[in-house]
Amino acid sequence: VFNTIIQIMPSVDRLHRLFCFYTCTGGKLFAGMYTGRSGTAYRKGNESMEQRKENQAGEVVRADAVANCQKKTDGVLYRQLNADEIDRTLFAHFIRHQNVTLCHRRVNGAWVIREDPFIDDWTEEDYRILVDCLKNTVRTGGFVYGAFVDGVLKGFTSVEAELFGGDNRYLDLSCIHVSEDMRGRKIGQTLFRAAADWAAQRGAGKLYISAHSAVETQAFYRAMGCVEAQEYNKEHVEKEPYDCQLEYSKGISKTVMK
To answer: How many CB atoms lie within 10 A of CB 140?
Structure first.
């Protein structure tokens, strides 16, 4: 039974409720430079750079092929979104509403469950920020994928394009949400797997998730196979101190091996 008390949350926690830490970045998709001391070394460096570019381009093509494949399951159409169609009207029938009673909190180095009741929802300003962020994700080479029922958006996920975390090769699962009226139909699972497949094709070793701490949300991620991140992203932690920092590699490693 959910407590209907609305808790006034600090601004940092409220932003966390909106995007599970959604980053609006404008970084380059691929960056790097080779410099050689001799002409021969420089030519070899150029060849290796060209080969890397070809490999990266191949990864992009494979990822786009995965993402652009539409599929319909149990009356839900899944497809990639482009920047031009992402606007406020796209979310006209999306219901963010979530009753939260219990949350995970880290206390003295251990995770505990505590009561922290509130109602999570989005304002018009939140939707404006969401639209800007999702557009930015697409325009910077990232992935935005939607679930539609009768032509209406009822779920979406996004993955940022920039790798981070050194050997962990993380890509950031910047958001995943399902409309309240469509929860329990495994839409979230399908969206998550699509995000993992896209990340794998882009060369990621793992998905990184700065995740909402509600027990229901954490149960979803754990059921998908997520575990506590081996390496915490400092920016995520500073901006969203109540988030649980998770990673997912099981499905990604299998996809890469294929």
So the answer is: 16
Cβ atoms of 71 and 148 within 8 Å: the answer is no
> Quick check: 209 and 56 in contact, CB under 8 A?
no
Pick from 243, 190, 185: nearest CA to 218: 243
Beta bridge partners of 207: 171, 248
Could you give the 3-state DSSP secondary structure of residue 252?
helix
Integer Cα distance of 91 and 42 in angstroms: 51
Residue located via tokens 């009673």: 101
pTM above 0.85, yes or no: no
Tracing tokens 């800007």 back to the chain, one arrives at 132
Is 150 buried (19+), middle (13-18) or exposed (0-12) by CB count in 10 A?
Answer: exposed
Q: How many CB atoms lie within 10 A of CB 112?
A: 10
Name the pairing type of β-strands 143-149 and 110-120: unpaired
- DSSP secondary structure, 85-117, as one string: G-SGGGGTT----EEEEEEEEEETTEEEEEEEE
- Asked if 162 and 27 touch (Cβ cutoff 8 Å), the reply is yes
Residue 28 carries which side chain, given as an amino acid letter?
Answer: K
For residue 179, the 8-state DSSP code is -
Q: Check residue 167 and give left, alpha or beta (phi > 0: left; psi -120 to 50: alpha).
A: alpha
pLDDT in tens, 112-137: 999 999 999 999 999 999 999 999 99
